[in-house]
Write a structure and sequence with these properties.
By secondary structure, this protein is of the alpha/beta class. Helix content is 41%, strand content 16%. Strand 18 and strand 19 form a beta hairpin. It is globular. Bound molecules: pyridoxal-5'-phosphate. Pyridoxal-5'-phosphate binds next to helix 11.
Length: 634
């Protein structure tokens, strides 16, 4: 048999097709992260995690690769610059990072630092996001676009921020908002910077791409745009409107959707210019998707286009329509979030245990004494010993019938517990043999196609899906999952991944495989004392902030890493995960009060001599230690 190589593993996990060439497998079978796509420099993830553990930073750990973040920002700017040059486009492109995608302060700070040379801006959608953006913009002059529903306080804060020099555009989402903005602007005597968000008829349709279209929650309908223009003209504010915006949804999987929206949005831009609205910017929103499964298709978690094609289409379509109408081309803004932050973060955790067939090891011993076995079990033994590729289907049918027979015999009292367990284990062993033989068949008989699923082992990983991969639970979203090590060795098991929450939904059963989605994850048999790590890739967009505290599992440790030529890597920032006490605080428990209350109760028991002083103090010590420890397993 040919030796297993890292190329086989790369194919098995489709590693060359997702991850934008930031990840690879080295000759020793370890996953590496590269500072730039396909760079000769790399950081070995297993080594990095081992080093972090030595520093007492334990899994689960969110690894944030800052070079990758920087790389995504520069790639997006590069492809737009190229499209602008190639199409002879007479205006500029600018990214406004939508901070809802990942609001962590250090992350947004890094984005604005990396994006400074491209005049990156921030897009926000709520009061807390506005306050965060104001704080980040202070002294840096970062422009802000303000989406979302706004109340009086929200609008006043923007208006007065504008007065003191902040560059903030208020996007009008609904007609009632505009009236409020006009009234408050007049009261304050401040001229606002305004944008109108339009609800296009061309919207997204998949699970995540639902913000556009006529029934969308946000944006003004075309008739409302006309009324808004009249209202603004009547109130002397029409020259404040500089920007037209649309957003057709997130993770747009087909380029056609963008093309349609771009045509409709640019036509509106042109018509509004003809109406005398002094627009200068066309904001095409977010939606630029990423290829989570690496299939380069219009699957829900893939995209059938590249960022180059996206940039080209945006620039080409806008120019085409503006040129035809004799209208100056606008400066183009995109609010790409997912495409910037998805790749740069990887959650790494350890496998705690596997659900193996516990009595499997007894089988060979029992088979030594066949005279003690019932005829049903003996028939299974025969199948187990004699099965080959020519008898596969028949043996499969016989085994299915025999296992049912074994259950009936057990229920009737003719089979003892040991034999029932033996029949179960034999069934698994036969299925394993069948599964191995099936790989050599072409075509595979329909009945045998799903056999691998019945052999799936549950691997228990030290994390919470609800905290770290909420979209995997809520949207069945696929994320690439790969072991960090032993990729020069064929994985012997096929697994599903269970987290440590007490929830049956806390299990992942869909994975990225060689040909798109698979129902199992190939993993290695864990060796005694081995620290077997798996990585969840491309989780930088939306996951951190959507994550919740199910079972009170809190934020994981997070580490920011920068590639360094001399030392291989540098740890820029360590953000410690929530302790038990911090998680409890979210649900209104106070660690000190808990300790006080429990201590009072123990003192009463000591006084009554129900427990000793030593027992009481030992328990208090354990409780105190637990309150200050990680919510995850050590
Ligand atoms: C108005 C707006 N802009 C930008 C985005 C970011 O979209 P994406 O992360 O798909 O680029 C969103 C998210 O749906 C949004 O609602």
């Amino acid at each position: 048999m040919a030796r297993w190589s890292m190329n086989d593993s790369a194919l098995m996990y489709n590693l060359g097709n997702w991850g934008a060439n930031f990840f690879s497998i080295n000759k020793k079978g370890n996953i590496c992260a590269h500072p730039t796509p396909n760079s000769k420099y790399s950081i070995v993830l297993k080594q990095l995690v081992d080093d972090l553990i030595k520093r007492k930073i334990k899994p689960p750990i969110l690894l944030r690769f800052m070079n990758i973040l920087e790389g995504r920002i520069s790639s997006l700017n590069r492809v737009f610059k190229k499209a602008i040059q190639e199409n002879g486009y007479p205006a500029n492109y600018q990214i406004f990072y939508p901070i809802k995608v990942n609001q962590q302060r250090q992350v947004v700070q890094a984005i604005t630092r990396f994006g400074k040379k491209y005049d990156i801006g921030l897009e926000i959608g709520s009061k807390p996001e506005l306050v965060a953006a104001i704080s980040l913009s202070a002294g840096n002059g970062i422009p802000i676009i303000c989406n979302g529903y706004k109340d009086k306080e929200f609008i006043e804060l923007i208006l007065y921020a504008t007065r003191i020099g902040y560059d903030i555009t208020i996007i009008v989402e609904k007609p009632f908002e505009l009236e409020k903005v006009i009234e408050l602007a007049h009261q304050a005597g401040i001229t606002p910077k305004l944008g109108l968000r339009v609800q296009l008829s061309s919207g997204g349709t998949s699970t995540v791409e639902t913000s556009g279209g006529e029934s969308a929650k946000f944006g003004l309908r075309i008739s409302e745009i006309l009324s808004a223009v009249d209202l603004l003209k009547n109130n002397g504010l029409i020259d404040s409107v500089k920007l037209l915006q649309f957003h057709i949804g997130s993770q747009i999987t087909k380029i056609d959707k963008f093309k349609k929206a771009l045509i409709e949005g640019t036509r509106l831009y042109v018509e509004m210019k003809k109406l005398g609205v002094n627009l200068e910017y066309l904001d095409v929103g977010g939606g630029l998707g990423v290829d989570y499964d690496g299939s380069k298709s219009s699957n829900a978690f893939s995209v059938n286009y590249s960022i180059e094609e996206y940039a080209n289409d945006v620039i080409y379509q806008i120019k085409n329509i503006c040129d035809a109408a004799g209208i100056a081309c606008p400066n183009v803004i995109s609010e790409s979030g997912r495409a910037i932050v998805a790749h740069y973060s990887v959650l790494v955790t350890n496998i705690l245990d596997t659900a193996t067939q516990s009595r499997m090891q007894d089988i060979e011993q029992l088979l030594q004494q066949p005279d003690k076995l019932s005829p049903t079990v003996l028939k299974m033994v025969d199948i187990y010993r004699s099965i080959d590729r020519y008898s596969l289907l028949e043996d499969y049918h016989d085994t299915m019938q025999l296992i049912q027979e074994a259950v009936s015999l057990f229920n009737l009292g003719y089979l003892c517990l040991n034999e029932r367990a033996l029949a179960e284990s034999l069934c698994t062993l036969i299925m394993r043999k069948i599964s191995a033989l099936v790989e050599t068949l072409k075509p595979v008989p329909v009945e045998l196609q799903n056999i691998q699923l019945s052999l799936r082992q549950t691997y228990f990983a030290n994390f919470s899906i609800f905290q770290s991969l909420p979209d995997s639970w809520a949207d069945d979203q696929l994320f690439p999952i790969v072991p960090l090590q032993r990729l020069d060795e064929k994985p012997a098991e096929i697994a599903s991944l269970a987290d440590i929450t007490c929830d049956s939904d806390g299990e992942i059963t869909s994975f990225v495989g060689a040909n798109g989605m698979t129902r199992f994850l190939p993993l290695h048999k864990i060796q005694p004392e081995e620290n077997y790590f798996i990585g969840f890739f491309m989780i930088g967009a939306y996951q951190e902030i959507l994550g919740d505290l199910h079972n009170l599992f809190g934020d994981t440790n997070a580490v920011h890493i920068t590639f360094n030529k001399k030392t291989n890597y540098r740890i820029d920032t360590v953000i410690h995960g929530d302790t038990v006490s911090e998680s409890l605080k979210y649900v209104q428990y106070n660690g000190d009060e808990i300790l006080q209350h429990v201590r009072d109760n123990l003192e009463k028991k000591v006084a009554l001599r129900l427990i000793s002083i030593e027992e009481s103090s030992h328990f208090m010590e354990l409780l105190g230690r637990t309150l200050h420890s990680s919510t995850y397993l050590e």
